[in-house]
Specification:
This protein is of the alpha+beta class. It is built from ten helices and 15 strands.
């Protein structure tokens, strides 16, 4: 009777999804997988897995970009068996999304210590040879991935890292247990639930009306300039965080600000980048760089920034000593902020 009831419920759920929009149906399906361990385990049989080793995703080179290969559950079981691993290790995987056809996507790290397996982590080189790919540091190749792979691997990286760093309860000190989807961890001794979290970060493009302010940190690649960015403090609103960061880093006072968009950024500890445009008070544009935060900051004209946007890669100093700077890649939200500013001011300067 219970089996019949379970089948009936799943059929009812399927027909409910058919009546909803594609987005709503997909969202409801993912919610079901996060809340129901049995449903998630069933989804693994028809789903696809992305593989990592010590937080480095498995990638294959394809012309001018990298691709992230998918593996079925059967392929993964065969791989683990070949290297003497218990297939129970698959329970360490995390759910990272699904297709519109409800094919669930998971990520599994074969290099991190496995709480559900007595076996040691698999050797990186042996897996690379077997799967004809390379485990590469995500931060170095993120902008050489297509949009879908970049988003999925960023989500996977952040979730896998969070689970690896949160295996014990902060109250009891006892090991926590993740659910099948990896959407939470629970302490068995006191039932405290831990959810993966993101740190809010404001990223702000400051303008004085005709110029925009770009800055660089010492950790940036040589020649790259970007918008100002900083973590929100506890108790701050978004507006307060923007005003404080601009004041702290370049000594300017924001008069107006406007929200633009947001983006998940996995490094270093999973952040939500909240992008804004800000205008400083007229006549108060003298920059005072906080050298504890920044290496340099300067005002750039519309023509300079537009030219930098047209460059396809790092700018090489020309013989005429043109200022050598380049901007974040297109997938970065800082690039979108700068592009928005250029397009807005280019339209306003065009004849009616």
């Amino acid at each position: 009777m219970s089996l019949y009831y379970g089948i009936a419920c799943r059929r009812k759920s399927f027909w409910c999804y058919r009546l909803l929009s594609t987005y709503v149906a997909k969202t409801r399906y993912l919610f079901e997988l996060k809340e129901d361990d049995d449903a998630c385990k069933i989804a693994q049989h028809t789903g696809a897995f992305y593989l990592f080793h010590s937080l480095a995703p498995l990638l294959q080179k394809s012309e001018h970009q990298y691709l992230a290969p998918q593996h079925s559950l059967l392929e993964l079981e065969r791989l683990l068996g070949k290297f003497g691993q218990d297939t129970q290790r698959i329970e360490d995987s995390v759910l990272i999304g699904c297709s519109e056809q409800h094919e669930a996507w998971f990520a599994l790290d074969l290099g991190l210590s496995s709480p559900s397996s007595i076996n040691a982590s698999l050797q990186k080189s042996e897996i690379e040879t077997e799967l004809k790919g390379s485990f590469m540091e995500l931060r170095k190749v993120l902008f050489e991935l297509n949009v879908k792979d970049a988003s999925l691997l960023s989500t996977a990286w952040a979730l896998l890292r969070w689970h690896d760093a949160h295996q014990f309860c902060s109250r009891s000190g006892q090991p926590t247990k993740k659910n099948m989807a990896g959407s939470k961890r629970v302490c068995p001794s006191n039932k405290i639930i831990y959810y993966p979290q993101m740190a809010p970060v404001v990223i702000t493009l400051v303008s004085d009306g005709t110029r925009c302010l770009l800055a660089r940190q010492s950790s940036f690649p040589k020649g790259m300039y970007s918008a100002l960015a900083g973590f929100c403090d506890i108790g701050e609103s978004l507006e307060e965080a923007v005003r404080r960061e601009v004041a702290e880093e370049v000594g300017l006072e924001v008069e107006r600000l406007q929200y633009s968009a947001s983006q998940h950024w996995p490094f270093p500890n999973s952040s939500l980048m909240i992008a804004c445009h800000a205008t400083v008070k007229p006549g108060q544009t003298e920059i005072h760089v906080n050298l504890r935060e920044l290496e340099a900051a300067a005002w750039f004209s519309l023509d300079e920034v537009a030219a930098a946007l047209r460059r396809k890669g790092p700018y090489i100093r020309q013989q005429d000593e043109t200022f050598p700077f380049w901007l974040p890649p297109k997938l970065a939200i800082a690039h979108q902020l700068i592009k928005e500013w250029v397009e807005k001011h280019s339209r306003s300067s065009l004849p009616a």
